[in-house]
Design a protein that fits this description.
Elements (H helix, E strand, L loop, with lengths): L3 E9 L10 E10 L4 E5 L6 H9 L6 E6 L2 E2 L10 E4 L11 H10 L5 H14 L15 H13 L6 E5 L7 H18 L2 E6 L2 H7 L2 E6 L2 E6 L1 H6 L4 H6 L6 E4 L1 E3 L2 E4 L2 E2 L14 E5 L4 E9 L1 E7 L3 E8 L2 E8 L10 E4 L5 E4 L2 E2 L1 H4 L2
Parallel strand pairs: 3-8, 3-9, 6-7, 7-8
Antiparallel strand pairs: 1-2, 1-4, 4-5, 9-10, 11-15, 12-13, 13-14, 15-21, 16-20, 17-18, 18-19, 21-22
Helix pairs in contact: 2-3, 2-4
This protein binds adenosine-5'-diphosphate and magnesium ion.
The site of magnesium ion has 3 residues, from helix 1.
Length: 359
Amino acid sequence: MARIRFRDVRHAYPPPKGQEPVYALNEINQVWEDGGAYALLGPSGCGKTTLLNIISGLLTPSEGEILFDGKEVTDLPTSARQIAQVFQFPVVYDTMSVFDNLAFPLRNRGMDEKLVQQRVEQIAEMLDLTDNLKKRASGLTADGKQKISLGRGLVRSDVNAILFDEPLTVIDPHLKWQLRSKLKELHQQVGVTMIYVTHDQVEALTFAEKVVVMYEGTVVQVGTPVELFNHPRHTFVGYFIGSPGMNVLPCSIDGGQPVFGKNLLNIESRIKGQLQGKLEVGIRPEFVEFADDGIPVRIEKVEDLGRYQVLTLTHEAEIIKMVMAEDQTVPSENPKIQFDPHHTKVYCDDWVVEEAVNE
Ligand code: ADP
Ligand code: MG
């Protein structure tokens, strides 16, 4: 097992002839602590697979270094890194039995056949593959094949990390939920570093202790699910995590306080200094409430989602989402809202201001 560190890693794929390279990964400095359960969360195309392939050695970054326990591995091939990787689509040997598929990574390293047997049976049990061990892999459904791939990723106990690249894409929703809990359980048992790539926030938040949020080739925040919810450092984190996501509204600053429309907003501590750039205020729908005095709004839509309601409001041309308990009532005339000052944040060019400017 190892602590994995990225030092000033950037990566650009070779550009088409005559064009400038575009960086798929911008400067990444990131530590993956030994034994951690990480989710790498971000939209399609943000660089998740590129980052995983750099960890496993399938790809050498154009700049920077990768260190395993302080030793540089940037130019080492995959085979020398002891990394198991599970891809988005099943990679199995169709003509081999399920047992032989699972045994392959172990036999490949010369493990004693008795131990191979034990380990394969253990993994098969965990993934509900026991009854299929003798079958040819080609006879299994897509779900079944992906379970074999997962099994091959999990079967070795001598790895530095296991990387999962959106491994449950082809799995049906019910089984997805089961497998995700199994992976989490397994992580707790064996304690090997796991990095789980997904574009699905629910998947990320249920699997991981730490979520690494990526956006356009940059790691914008690393945090626990609660930290990401309560303190989004970047507007993308606010918007991407949460349902509905954080409201991001244009603002100006007056006397250290944000002004939205003509409304002065209270925040925890005043902003000091002059801000240059695009200024916005971020407030999660959960922290918007009706008040006697506040920002006048129009109620455009009320959606009842069972335990809570989602309201779509407008103030002039801006749309504001609000979440309200099911038993609360919507004011019938002149509705006004307030933002909880403890959860109202100011962003400058998409980055939160408090840390940079406040004391
Ligand atoms: P993700 O896994 O988050 O969807 P990727 O790491 O696959 O993102 O891709 C990041 C960016 O790099 C995208 O803009 C993608 O088009 C580009 N890219 C990925 N693989 C290659 C490649 N082999 N050659 C050129 N560009 C690539
Ligand atoms: Mg990908």
